[in-house]
Amino acid sequence: MGDPVQLKDEGNKFFQAGDIDKAIECYTKAIKVCKDKKVLAVIHRNRSACYLKKENYANAASDASKAIDVDAADIKALYRRCQALEKLGKLDMAFKDVQRCATLEPKNKTFLETLRRLGADIQAKLKTTFSTDSRVQNMFDILLDEEMEKDKREKAANNLIVLSREDAGAERIFQNNGVPLLLNMIETGKPEMILAAVRTLSGMCTGHKARAMAIIHMVGVDKMCSIMAVDNEEIALATCNLFQCINDSLTGGDTREYGKEEALVLDAAKDLKTILLSLLEMVTSKKVSGHGRDQALNLLTKNVPRRDKKEKDNTKALFTIDHGLKKILKVCGQVSELPDQLSMTENTQLIASVLLNKLYDDLKCDPERANFKDICDEYIKSKIDPNNMDKTIHAVNTISGLLQGPFDVGNALVGQQGIMEMMVALCGSEREVDQMVAVEALIHASSKMSRASFIITNGVSLLKDIYKKTKNERIKIRSLVGLCKLGSAGGDDYSLRQFAEGSTEKLAKQCRKWLCNPQIDTKTRKWAIEGLAYLTNDADVKDDFVEDEPALKAMFELAKSKDKTILYSVACTLINCTNCYDKKEIIPELVQLAKFSKQHVPEQHPKDKKDFIEKRVKRLLKAGVISALAVMVKADNAILTDQTKEMLARVFLALSEDPKDRGTIVAQGGGKALIPLALEGTDTGKVKASHALAKIAAISNPEIAFPGERVYEVVRPLVSLLHTDRDGMQNFEALKGLTNLAGYSEKLRVKIVKEKALPEIENYMFEEHDQIKQAATECMCNLVTCKEVQERYLEDGNDKLKLLVLLCGEDDDDLQIAAAGALAMITAAQNKLCSKLTLVTTQWLEILQRLCLHTNPKIQHRGLVIIYNMLNSDDSELAKKLIESEMLEILTIIGKAEDNPKRQEPIDTARTCLVKAMELGLIKPFSSPS
């Protein structure tokens, strides 16, 4: 079994050698076999010291207690328990232990200092606790006092919200009977009180599983749903946020350890299922407002489909399809012009389509997809009734919703026998509502060339007929959009025009006319943008459109409206106007070959060349495109899909191409708007947005471009562009942006280091491309003042310092300025590097001499600063070596030169070096004979 004393001694040796794990192992073995109480106490005390080193404070306190049980005056054990208890937050118990230590050794400075510090901490904690308790109660008193002044109540409400966002404050509110008091505030029925209560509950639920579960049971899911159902957009959005905070806390967002409380934090699966079923119930409830329905659909979109397709579990999606797919389809089929419809906003049906698309996309196999299609098919068939036109147009509108969501499902339904014929028949109906629904369905159905060709054959004359005969503007504009879409079926291929020369321009002119007419409602005017989204594939149309400033401004105003269904059409139109879609490079030889073999070759329109695109960008910026984009990005809505975000990122990148325009982009809030696009969305979208950010960050004042804390969010997107799978321009502009940020503040330099950018920047310092190498070196020059960067240069076994020295010897002036600047700063900060510099290459002295003799005063000055740092480095041998070399002659020539404003810095630095050499006794001052 082993001798406990021997095992203890072995443990002591391991502890002294720094091998804590082995020491714990020896002490544990010794504890198992030791029978002597006093020896056992010593072993426990020693193991306590090990646990302190490992930051396992609970075990450290436990072992120290076992030693104290044997000897209550064991001063080492008492102090170790005090340290452990302090780390565990048990300040009063720690204070008692150190008080005992100070009684046993009254002159021990460590004990006295700890006693003073803990006393102050306890007082501060008590003060906070009592003041927070009284503040919480005081706030509720003010809020629930109907006679209190309005501004005082508003201030109390804001204070309560702020307090709930800190864990200590949230716990205080919770412990002080806060939840029932918040429910009293909700019961007042006053919107501002409900908002304050809901936002406070959100703060209390954020990141705390136990509290979130308690609040669900105290408030009740039904109660939360009824709050979200009210016809108030702000309250619906705040309650949606509360549900999201609860979901995040219950599904793994909360990583804290609860210890004994863990048993109270029950399995959250039941609560999550209750919430899901309640949200599905809200989707078709007549008691729910349009805003409430939107937020219920938004929550389902955000939380049901898997966030990462690598996760295997898609049971939430399957459950939602089984229990709620028909309900979502019902929302898609609503026709607001008919009686007895669900309350909806302009956005509701498109949000439902987005949800359908995400659910379908979350399915993993053909049987799951077949089940989805079968439910849709069954629902549509149940609604088609030749004797009930209202039910039939509900079915057609549902198909429209599917065509905007999972297109394959909608397309399969349209392809079924009789459906297309029914849509065409409805176009000829005498009821205007039938015509409107049918025309919309035809528009959505013609999204693929094969379908479009069918409708061109069967539907164009029909749409033209409706357009000419109807007096209803709403139907007229929709039939025109149908014609626009069919007319653009060839995309931007100049040779594939569907209509006669000039027809698309006429259609576009009519769309612009409607767009600028404020008498027409927003829902109808948005169809004018939809038409332009198709027609601007034609370069003549986009050129005319950007020249029409009132039409541009009208589109931007609509983009800022509450109707978010417009986002995609606006994004498409801007993509077309700026030509920022991906284009395949057409090789001339292959074009000739294709023509010879009579194959179709896409042709570029003359107005799609670079100079035309640049003019269009200038016109868009002048009309205020950036402020519209900034509002579009803020849409807290499922309609702002990853695909739409990618399009907005592409537009931003196209707009920021010319450095002269970047000031305008910053001034109108473009810098801030790009950050969320760079952090969320498709991979391509994130890269495009990050590239646009890099262009702005490279030449703008970070404080103005990204005000407040936002500047720190810019670092990660820029670092993501440094990977080798990005192109050279992205690498270069990211490095330029990081250089600018690194020169701004120490906090930003630390952030760049934390984002693991250093290895990437160092790699690019080896790059063959001169501009990228220079940008990386400039970036490193701004980073070397950071302690962590200096430590990397101090480490042995790498060529980092050697690279800097060799870069100083390059022929490129800008590269030399950056490398010599970095070397000057880093040798000033770390004396040890002065000696290390002489060991990395035999050419060091020659390179430094060349720097000091350089014709460029900036390079010369940096070289002389390096020499001064070496003389000032406490390495007398190094200083002697420098003065014994030709460097003394160089310093003397420069120092003796006449004052010259253009070269004053190097002259002054050379003189300072000579003075330092005199101080070191390496040279003597010149004195004339008496």
From TrEMBL:
Principal location listed in the UniProt entry: cytoplasm
Pfam families (alphabetical): TPR_8, UNC45-central
Gene Ontology terms describing biological process: cardiac muscle tissue development; lens development in camera-type eye; myofibril assembly; skeletal muscle tissue development
Domain (UNC-45/Cro1/She4 central): residue spans on this chain: 296-486
Stretches forming TPR repeats: 4-37
InterPro entries listed in its UniProt record: ARM-like, ARM-type_fold, Armadillo, TPR-like_helical_dom_sf, TPR_rpt, UCS_central_dom
Designated name of the protein: Protein unc-45 homolog B
Compartments, as annotated in UniProt: Cytoplasm, Myofibril, Sarcomere, A band; Cytoplasm, Myofibril, Sarcomere, Z line; Cytoplasm, Perinuclear region
Superkingdom field: Eukaryota
This protein's GO CC annotations: A band; perinuclear region of cytoplasm; Z disc
GO molecular function: Hsp90 protein binding
Source organism: Seriola dumerili (Greater amberjack)
Repeat is among the record's keywords: yes
Sorted UniProt keywords: Chaperone, Cytoplasm, Developmental protein, Differentiation, Myogenesis, Repeat, TPR repeat
PANTHER family tied to this protein: FI21225P1, PROTEIN UNC-45 HOMOLOG B
